[in-house]
Write a structure and sequence with these properties.
heterodimer, A: mainly beta, six-stranded mixed sheet, five-stranded antiparallel sheet, 11 strands, 0% helix, globular, B: mainly beta, seven-stranded mixed sheet, four-stranded antiparallel sheet
Chain lengths: 112, 112
């Protein structure tokens, strides 16, 4: 089957960092995306990874290990406004027609 | 201006009434989606549309149908709404790579 798992909550302190983990299982992997969703708002695309390794995009970085079915989103220099839910989504190459499968999201709370 | 719009933003209906949710995008994206988002269930794909009159069921199509007669418009129809269809509905669009989807602001539907 296909599943995307994320921790429900994560708390961190302003100025530090937060790592949001995502594990997935697919019959055929064809990329993983990260979205940010603030309370009461729509998801906003952050990053897409399809190859192993770390992709540095400044404030947000993403890591992927296909052999382990694992990714993380790293938020550095945290600001209060980074408080949001972060959604991991995968695409199954054996189920192309279905688009993305989303995890439930990790609610990140940044405290002063 | 790259934008996905949804109308209405809020809607209250009685059980058994018909519901029409409208979505528009100004990016000439081929692919459009309808999702619903519920606490504890995350974003679930209802329908995906690859272009005009080329629609495919998602994970939870029962009780819904869609219409796409122009590339920029994608409608979600609930014939005889049920109370368990109370949810927040998001429309999204993408071009080519399904990894980067642009979401509309959402419609909060309450079925009494």
């Amino acid at each position: 089957g296909q599943g995307v798992e994320q921790p429900a909550k994560l708390m961190s302190v302003e100025g530090t960092f937060a790592r949001v983990n995502c594990t997935y299982s697919t019959s055929g992997f064809n990329g993983l995306s990260w979205y940010q969703q603030r309370e009461g708002q729509a998801p906003v695309f952050l990053s897409y990874v399809v190859l192993d390794g770390l992709k540095d995009s400044g404030h947000f970085s993403t890591f992927l290990s296909r052999s382990n079915g694992y990714s993380y989103l790293l938020l550095t220099e945290l600001q209060i406004k980074d408080s949001a839910s972060y959604l991991c989504a995968v695409r199954d190459s054996n189920n192309y027609a279905q688009g993305l499968t989303f995890g439930l999201g990790t609610r990140v709370s940044v405290f002063p | 201006d790259m934008k996905v719009t949804q109308m209405p933003r809020y809607l209250i209906k009685r059980m058994g009434e018909n519901v029409l949710l409208e979505c528009g995008q100004d990016m000439s994206h081929e692919t459009m989606y309808w999702y619903r988002q519920d606490p504890g269930l995350g974003l679930q794909l209802i329908y995906i549309s690859y272009d005009v009159d080329s629609n495919s069921e998602g994970d939870i199509p029962k009780g819904y149908r869609v219409s796409r007669k122009k590339r920029e418009h994608f409608s979600l129809i609930l014939d005889s709404a049920k109370t368990n269809q109370t949810s927040v509905y998001f429309c999204a669009s993408s071009q080519g790579n399904y990894a980067e989807q642009f979401f509309g602001p959402g419609t909060r539907l309450t079925v009494l």
